[in-house]
Amino acid sequence: MRPVQNALGMSSLSGVGIGLRATHYQTILNSLPQVPWFEALTDNYMGRGGLPLHHLERVAEHYPITLHGVGLSLGSTDPLNTTYLKKLKQLCERFQPVLVSDHLCWSSVSNVHGHDLFPLPYTERAAKHIGDRIQAVQDFLGHRILVENVSSYLQYKESMQTEAEFLVDVIERADCNLLCDINNIFVSASNHNFDAQEYLELMPVDRVQEMHLAGYEDQGTHLLDTHGAKVHAPVWSLYERALQRFGQVPTLIEWDTNIPEFSVLMAERDKAAAYHADVKHHVASGF
Predict the structure, then answer these.
(1) CA-closest candidate to residue 67, choices 83, 33, 90
(2) When comparing pLDDT for 116 and 102, which is higher?
(3) Dihedral sign, CA of 32, 279, 250, 223?
(4) Rounded CA gap, 287 and 284, in Å?
(5) What is the C-alpha separation between 243 and 275, in angstroms, rounded?
(6) Which of 17, 91, 98, 104 has the smallest C-beta neighbourhood within 10 Å, fewest atoms?
(7) pLDDT tens digits for 166-220?
(8) Please, is 234 exposed, middle or buried when counting C-beta atoms within 10 Å of its C-beta (0-12, 13-18, 19+)?
């Protein structure tokens, strides 16, 4: 199994984890399930105190955690939010997460937040802009972060690269790592009619430090990334291909809406763990 070196300490991450949600705090703390790690949504824990931080502290006593955010707005033309960055750094120092990640997108303009993950034009200028901002974030935090590919429902006429080419360009410029969301690749591939497996083939193997799995909804005209359902069959198939290419990268079951009983998440986690365990212990250079 391929562990991921902690950016902040000496711990490592492996296996299939679950996203930590408030509705499951007590179940987790009472039963201490056999889960190798939990992912906490950064933006939920930026207060100075309160129950969320209390519960996260208790969970972190038993499990490695990662921090996954939606607030950096890495692709925005707004200045980086120094208040947000300071709070993020304090969280990192307090909890020593194994990985810290956010999204390859923008979510604010003129300091007004849209509360969504908006896609970018795939141009060299945009890649340089976002690469510089990721470098600034990493310099501030003192370690690399992961950026996640987002699902999308529109494309820009100005784009000169494919999404996969743009993502690789940004990663190389920023010297950051990749959180490869398998569901997002499948959703965007379906919506924009590109080959999801060719997308995987372009991803730099040594930069893929984590993968996400989630569910989508078929809206007829497009797929909608809801993170509110079980993982669909074609996403499982794409995950199997990703494991063949990247090796046993730590993987997360992500479920953000219509959150079910914890037992349902565990069943999805166990299914992913079976795929994860079957992959040979090597990192392939291609399929």
Answers:
(1) 90
(2) 102
(3) negative
(4) 7
(5) 8
(6) 91
(7) 999 999 999 999 999 999 999 999 999 999 999 999 999 999 999 999 999 999 9
(8) middle
Task: Return the structure tokens found at 114.
Answer: 């849209």
Collapsed DSSP state (helix, strand, coil) of residue 90: helix
Q: Is 50 exceeded by the pLDDT of residue 148?
A: yes
Cut 0.85: pTM above it? yes
The gap between the terminal CA atoms of the chain, to the nearest Å, is 19
Place of tokens 């909608």: 224
Q: What is the CB neighbour count within 10 angstroms for residue 216?
A: 23
pLDDT mean over 148-153:
85
DSSP-assigned letters across all residues of 61-87: TTS-EEEE-S---TT-SSPP-HHHHHH
Phi/psi-derived region of residue 99, left when phi > 0, alpha when psi is between -120 and 50, beta in every other case: beta
Residue with tokens 């033309």: 77
CB atoms inside a 10 Å sphere around CB 195: 10
Q: Which of 167, 79, 187, 182 is nearest to 120 (CA)?
A: 167
Domains of the chain: 4-278 (3.20.20.150)
Distance CA 15, CA 37 (A): 8
Q: Report the distance separating Cα 22 and Cα 94, nearest Å.
A: 20
Give yes or no for a contact between 279 and 189, defined as CB atoms under 8 angstroms apart: no
Using CA atoms, how far apart are residues 286 and 170, in angstroms rounded to an integer? 21
Distances in Å between the Cα of 281 and the Cα atoms of 5, 150, 249, 266 are: 17, 28, 11, 24
Checking if the pLDDT of 6 tops 70, the result is no
- Report DSSP state, residue 206: G
Q: Say if residues 178 and 167 touch (Cβ distance below 8 Å).
A: yes
